[in-house]
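Weekly modeling sync, notes
Attendees: S.R. (lead), two postdocs, one rotation student

Agenda item 3: backlog of single-chain predictions. S.R. asked that every request posted to the team notebook include the full sequence so nobody has to chase files. The rotation student volunteered to paste the first one in as an example of the format we agreed on. Action items at the bottom.

Example entry:
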Amino acid sequence: MSGIRNLRRGGSSLIEFTLVGIPVIFVLISTFEMARGMWLYHSLAYAARQGTRYAIVHGINCSLNGNTYCVTIPNVAAAVQNAAVGLDPKQMTVTLTPSQGSATTDTLDNLLNSSTYATTAWPPSSPAGTNAIGQPVQISLVYPFNSGICMFWPGTKPTNAVGLIYLPASSTDRIQF
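Predicted structure, as returned to the notebook:
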């Protein structure tokens, strides 16, 4: 008789674990994925801010009084990369927007290594006054966050592929000197 009772208890334990264990595992994995997404977003926002800070202190005065050192696009891209610890520069899209003229958009890897940008000053000096004190500059970053759990999470709308969300971050400030 006691053997039958143990068998019944063992079966109910298995059912209870199945009913409770699977949702708990899902919640734990979801928590880790959300934390990873938040870390990526925070790193991206920090990198945008640091790149903007670097750019605003290298405005019009970089070429005054015989000073020949002006900041180039790879210099600003290096400041972004130094702050973006753990993010792949080949996947990060960077947009450098001066107060006037056209914006420059490319991957961080290309901005760092391409000979096209090697001598391009940023913020640019033309049109006249673009790199003057008080002019705004903006750095925008976009980074893909790929999560398999995203397809199950309510309220998310992945773009392109299942579980792929593009995290945006931008920073705008005015040239200081």
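Discussion: group reviewed the output briefly. The chain is about 40% helix and 20% strand.
Action items: rotation student to repeat for the remaining queue; S.R. to check formatting next week.
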